[in-house]
Structure formats: C-alpha cells, structure tokens
Amino acid sequence: MKIAVLAGDGIGPEVVREALRVLEALDLPGLSISDGDVGAAAWRKHGHPLPPQTLDLTRLADAVLFGAVGDPACDGLERHLRPEQAILGLRAELGLFANLRPATCFAGLEHLSALKPEIAREIDLLIVRELNGDVYFGEKGIRTLDNGERQGWDMMSYSEAEVRRIAHVAFRAAQGRAGRLTSVDKANVLETSQLWREVVTDVAREYPDVALDHLYVDNAAMQLVRAPGAFDVIVTGNLFGDILSDQASMCVGSIGLLASASLGERQTQFGTFGLYEPIHGSAPDIAGQGKANPMATILSAAMMLRHSFSREADAARIERAVARALDDGFRGGDLGGSASTRQIGDAVIERL
Ligand code: NAD
Ligand code: IPM
Ligand code: MN
Q1: Which of 66, 224, 335, 342 has its CA 20 to 30 A from that of 299?
Q2: 238-252 vs 217-226: helix axis angle to the nearest 10?
Q3: For the whole model, what pTM was predicted?
Q4: Domain locations in the chain?
C-alpha cells in the first residue's frame, strides 16, 4: 500500500506529521510511504510547484496524502508558478474529478459550532464538489480594453459529460446515506448552471430512490446556517463547492476539522486511487507555531483508509479517536482551546 506524502507549505508539514504518526500507530502491514516536494517548497527547490518527479511519485502510489500549499511570498509570481497550481495540477493530471467533503457534527460537541447547538447537532452532510472543471480550469487572462483600461476575465463552463459523471457520484453517495440530494447552482443567471440543472435532472431518472431538489447557491449558503440538518448530500460545481465547504466547516466547529477525498476512476488492487487533504490551506498566519489543528488531516487519512485501502474498521477507529480527543477537551486555538498540534496528535493516538 504505497502512499505518496506531499506535505507542502505553511502548516502543511505540521499537520501531515501528526496524520502520519496516527497511521504508524495503527501498525498496518505493507504500508510504504514516500515524500515529494510540492507548492512553494518545490518551487524554491526545483523552480516549479509541481515538479515532474512529484507527479511521477503520485502516479506510482495507491493514494496521496496532501497537506496544503500556498505562500504569501509567491502571490506575485506568474500564475503557472504559484503554489496553488500544484494542487490544481494534481487534481487535473490525476483525473480526480470528485471531491467528497463530509461535515458531521460530532455527537455531544454541538457547542463547538459557530451556530446554535440545537441547529448544529443535526448536521450530517456530504458536499460532493466537482473538481476538474468550472471557472477554475477555463481560459483566463487580463486584457486591455480599447480605452486602455485593463479587464480580468475567466471563462466558466461545464460540459454535459462533466456534469453527468459527478451527478452519478452524488446520487450513489445519497443512496448510501439518507437518500436525499440537493444540487446547488445559479441557473437563474448562468447558462453553465442551466445546463448543470438539466443534466442533473436527467440523471435523476436513473435513481428513483433518491429525492432530488435544486437550490440556487445564494439560498444554499443561507440554508446552510438556517437549517443545515436538512441537507444530506449536496452536489455542486468547483467554485460553489469550494466556498460552501469552508462555510460548512464553521457550522460543525472549525476549518481545522474538515477532511476531504478527491477521487477519479482509477482502481488499484486495494480500492479507489485518491488524494486526501484537509479542506483548509497553509494558514501562514499560524505556520511554524505549533498551533494548527491536525484533525482535518488525520480525518483525511481515515478517508484514505476507507476509500483507497478498503479498511473501513481502521477508518472508523481513527474517527472515534478524534471525537473522543475533542470530547476530552483537546482543542486547538481554532476551537477556543490551547492544545498544540503535537498534543492533539498525541491525544488522538492515545485514544486509538
Ligand atoms: P486557510 O485555510 O489557510 O486559513 C484560513 C484561516 O483559518 C486562517 O486564519 C488560519 O489560521 C485558519 N486555519 C486554517 N487551517 C487551520 C488549522 N488546521 N488549525 C487552525 N487554524 C486553521 O486559508 P487562507 O488564509 O485563505 O489561505 C492561505 C493560503 O493557503 C493561500 O495561499 C491559499 O491559496 C492556500 N490554500 C491552499 C489550500 C490547499 O492547499 N488545498 C486550500 C485553501 C487555501
Ligand atoms: C481548496 C483550496 C483550493 C481550491 C485552492 C488552494 C486552489 O481552496 O482545496 O479548497 O480553490 O480548490
Ligand atoms: Mn478552499
């Protein structure tokens, strides 16, 4: 079971270190780990945020554990050299089009939420975010208009096939959960969303056991804080999914808690090839201070065991250990506590 570990920038290496310690504590037979450079760290060393050797490493692996990329010092670089291009490049090159971002309120920990506890308690949702298309991967540029003024532009598009394949992932996910799917778009304004809605509606005919509804993204953002418990599975495009998942993290408690799996079609002998990463970024404001909450990355490692290595029992064990560590008061600054990254890692490992 080969894992390529790309820790990246800022708090990336700090949180990945703890997730690896948790995996080591499980003492799984046949696990091999190799590290690769990515992000600003790779740009400094190799002149590129996603060097070919790093991409090769991920292609030879059965799963990728990813920390975070991003460095304010790189914000002025040409776009193709910026650290963020590494994660976008990996998602595109590895065909990882389905991003699963679960947000569940840990039992008894509803008071950690930014919402009222009685509202937070009900949260058990899964955001299925399309990851290979949308305005993220369209043509873009800054052009000069006739009057000499500059204009930035980004092309948004989705093809039928792109919508269809993510819709199938979402309907199947809903079948395995409470059987409800909400498709989020902006069909009242965007042609891209109009087509999205038509295709999702068409795919729904193959899933009569799933109840489908549609929400505009502005309303979805509102409903996510008004009554998040009403959601089961949400399927949406790349941009809306990015935003709604950060929002969902605060509904549960903190961005330091939300894990993700990015999956494509490739199967290995162990399960589905995937890339696993916390939904947060490199958090430059707290990097290097031992303040980052590693739980999102630890929970991402659990998702890796579930999806890429078919080890459901081990995944659930990690998730229970995280919940218990939280319950026992091991909380970082993001949750109003003072536990360090290492202390949180230790607490999870003890509870394993
Ligand atoms: P961010 O997610 O890095 O941080 C947002 C806020 O949340 C910050 O105040 C940060 O301190 C806090 N935070 C995030 N993760 C935390 C954790 N585990 N524990 C405690 N607090 C945590 O978002 P940002 O500040 O907008 O972006 C910083 C950099 O990260 C940018 O370069 C951005 O492009 C990049 N980024 C990368 C990824 C990725 O690698 N997948 C994701 C998001 C942002
Ligand atoms: C995320 C991040 C990335 C995204 C950035 C770093 C490109 O915000 O994984 O949520 O927008 O997808
Ligand atoms: Mn994001």
Answers
A1: 224
A2: 10
A3: 0.98
A4: 1-99+256-352, 110-253
